[in-house]
Specification:
With 218 residues, the protein is an alpha/beta fold. 39% of the residues lie in helices and 20% in strands. Strands 7-6-5-4-3-2-1-8 form an eight-stranded parallel β-sheet. It starts with a helix and ends with a helix. Bound molecules: pyridoxal-5'-phosphate. Pyridoxal-5'-phosphate binds next to strand 8 and helix 9.
């Protein structure tokens, strides 16, 4: 199957309310265009430079999400490029993004990245620290915290990912409760090519898929 057919097949199988992000790292603008022609509405990029090249070709026909770790010194560029940052993982980054958002007179939607596997080599906020982190974002009026994102550990069987998705969803549900000024918990971004079905069962409404659309990365 080609990119278009694979993208269409996944889109057709999604329950209502679940949004697909095409994870496009390492793919050409041509490949991403094919996915867009098939109905993809959101493209996820891990690197600012790569995003910039593809946005120049594809433009605002789709929404662009940052799904990779974002260095604080790239905040300004990221604000110019992305519609949403799914990987907010530090107060320093939040401060920089808010600073430039204020300058641009813009409100930037962000998701907090949760390190659900508590893996030292991965970025993201530890599950038990997410609520405190959210409270520290309260004064950053030009950020809109719209949910949580998690990667979870690399697993060989999707069932092994379930506890990490479940824990993230429980945090999401908890934070949904009390109203906060710059926060509206709408999106739970979890699940990749091998795990998206499990992620949806555990409440994901944003899934990020690369390989199952574009084929294996070379
Ligand atoms: C690459 C990537 C994905 C997609 O991974 P696949 O296994 O290719 O579907 C999802 N999320 C993030 C953050 C990624 O970097």
């Amino acid at each position: 199957m080609g990119i278009q057919e694979k993208a269409k097949e996944i889109l057709a199988s999604l329950p209502p309310g679940v949004n697909l992000v095409a994870a496009a790292k390492g793919r050409s603008a041509e490949e991403v265009s094919q996915a867009v022609d098939a109905g993809i509405k959101i493209v996820g990029e891990n690197y600012v430079q790569e995003a910039e090249k593809k946005i120049a070709v594809i433009g605002c026909r789709v929404k662009w999400h940052c799904i990779g770790h974002l260095q604080t010194n790239k905040a300004k560029k990221a604000l110019e490029l992305f519609d949403m940052i799914e990987t907010l993982d530090s107060l320093a980054l939040a401060g920089e993004l808010n600073k430039y958002a204020v300058k641009e007179g813009r409100v930037l939607p962000v998701l907090i990245e949760v390190n659900s596997g508590r893996e030292p080599q991965k970025s993201g906020i530890l599950p038990e620290e997410v609520e405190g982190f959210l409270e520290q974002l309260a004064g950053l009026a030009n950020l809109k915290i719209e949910g949580l994102m998690t990667m979870g550990p690399l697993v060989s069987n999707p069932e092994e990912a379930r506890p990490f998705f479940r824990e993230t969803r429980l945090i999401f549900e908890k934070l949904k409760g009390p109203p906060r000024a710059n926060c509206e918990m709408k999106y739970l971004s979890m699940g990749m090519s091998d795990t998206w079905k499990t992620a949806i069962e555990e409440g994901a409404n944003l899934i990020r898929i690369g390989t199952a659309i574009f084929g294996p990365r070379t």
